[in-house]
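Subject: mismatched residue count in predicted assembly?

I count 571 residues in my input, but I want to confirm that the predicted structure covers every chain. Input:
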Amino acid sequence: MAKIRPLGIYAFLYLAFLYVPVLFLPIFSFNDSAIVAFPLKGITTQWYANLWSDDAMQGALWNSLKVAVASSLVATVLGICGARALTRYRFPGKAGIAALIMLPLVLPEIIIAISLLVVLLQLGFSLSLFSVTLGHILMSVPFSIAVLSSSFEGFDRSLEEASLDLGEGPAATFFRVTLPIVAPGILSSLLITFTISLDEFIVAFFLSGTEPTLPIYIWSQLRFTAKLPNVLALGSLLLLASFLLLSVAEVMRRRAVRRAGAGTSGGFL
Amino acid sequence: MAAVTDSYTVTAGGRLRARLARSEAARGLALVSPTFLYALLLLLAPILVIVAFSFWTQDYLDIDRTATLANYREAWTDPLYRILMFRSLGVSALVTLITVLLAYPMAYYLSFHLGQRKALWLFLITIPFWTSYLLRVFAWKIILGYNGAINASLMELGLIAQPMEFLLYNVNSVVITLAHAWAPFAILPIFVSLEKIDRSLLEAATDLGDGPIRRFLRITLPLSLPGVVAAALIVFIPTVGDYVTPRLVGGKDGLMIANMVQFGKANNWPLGAALAVSTMVVVTAASLMFVVLAKQLTARFR
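Triage response: the counts match. Full output below for your records.
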């Protein structure tokens, strides 16, 4: 064991480095001082209390929730179609279609934001939460497909065929066989795309009109030094929400893979 | 679904399968079409419009649709844009190098030393990066800032008399922030390529007398190069076009090309479009060059 120790220490330090900024916000959100510095001055929940009475913040939160719910639902439906088609069927132009759909994963967000902005304005749309939602759907679909593919990939086709052979209709087969197997994957996709939308800044920054989402509200507050502790508190809550949602999503995704994987042997061979 | 009623016969499974195969392409296309159309209308079409815009000109509010290269001339000759473009490429290349170098040992540790705890570590590595990018960049701003945590703490302790200014609002802070933000995107592809290495090759090398270092250089490293190349591209391409980090921690000297793509003041969309297209072209060219170089390097290893 002695031989691997330096690498282990390195790995721990690297992991710690990755968590520095994420832990930083919560620690200082309880600090009883408007100046962010060690040593801490004392513990307070004042900054969190301030959030309760902040109407602008609550409006932004409400906007964010609307956008996140709408975009996660649509992105997951599109993701189901995409993942199912790409994992199960062979069709002409598949590689090109897949590349286009997954493109937002590597494209700088600013390109997506700017090009959508120009087109929407040219078509005479006014910017609103709706245009933000359109952008978030586009960015979320690749993630949805990535999550769902892992639960569709191991999917045993013969289970559906068995159900059809035994006289169930396509609808009943879908609800009684397909859905229960892929449900955890779908839930995982919903949670992940919801979180992406909740945290997304660039596209929302360019495509939202007069209605800010939560990250835009945070951005607008960064200018005011006096508001810094409130932003820390708000940011910490947002981080906490993301952590919880993603942990549940990960548990669901693993369950989905296990369920689908349980029947892998046989089907294709 | 007539196929369902047919399927009561003994050969039902086979016939159903044949029928499915025949219509497979059609069904696949039908199923993928909503997602495909969405990407076509809201991704490909807008990008094509941007390309078209880059050849047009704008006179106050009117768009003149005569094709011209004027925007590209301005985008490629104006020293400001040229500086920002080179800086973006330089910063991204540096970030890529640092991130991949830091990520490799981590990925190696994950793949070779963790056994059962792999999944937990992967989860721990990825989860901070699903959280808000804006907040993570913001956190670095208050860590590195003039009145930030490092400076304020050191002053509190009496170690420095004045805040160190080199920490924030320059290229260094952009590099640190980006190297942190993209870490998992470098770790994961390298990890995957390490996982794929057949462990018996390593045993064979040991049996044939290779020491650990020689074994690593001759087997592990060459076989993991595809993962390294993927990691480098995944980090390089998006960081060139990053907007938030240069805006928040870059200051004047750390601005990058993405901060110019949007033209708030002049509102010159065609020029912005030409800059966006130029950036995409340059990034693609740089990536292709890198892939070709990496391929030659890999070939030499074998």
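The domain at 60-264 of chain A is CATH 1.10.3720.10 (MetI-like fold). Marking this ticket as 'not a bug'.
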